[in-house]
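Section 5: illustrative case.
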């Protein structure tokens, strides 16, 4: 997913605030919450770095967010092993 925010004059004097963290103007390759952003004094545009699993066996598998890799892991409920087939959307 992506989002866009426009700033009023003087609102973004030192950078862009994303989830309580101030990032400098320019390109931000990865925020703490797995977003890629572009920041200027006038606007900020961010998109997620991960895709979301949508088509998997919900009876035998579960979805866990892996913040280190900025991605969702689809694993078997018992024990936690990768599930064979699933589809993602971005």
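Designed sequence:
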């Amino acid at each position: 997913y992506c989002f866009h925010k426009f700033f009023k004059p003087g609102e973004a004097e030192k950078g862009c605030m994303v989830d309580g963290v101030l990032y400098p103007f320019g390109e931000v390759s990865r925020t703490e919450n797995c977003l890629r952003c572009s920041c200027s004094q006038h606007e900020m545009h961010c998109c997620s770095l991960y895709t979301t699993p949508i088509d998997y066996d919900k009876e035998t598998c579960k979805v866990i967010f892996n913040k280190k890799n900025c991605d969702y892991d689809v694993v078997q409920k018992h024990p936690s092993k990768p599930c064979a087939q699933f589809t993602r959307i971005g």
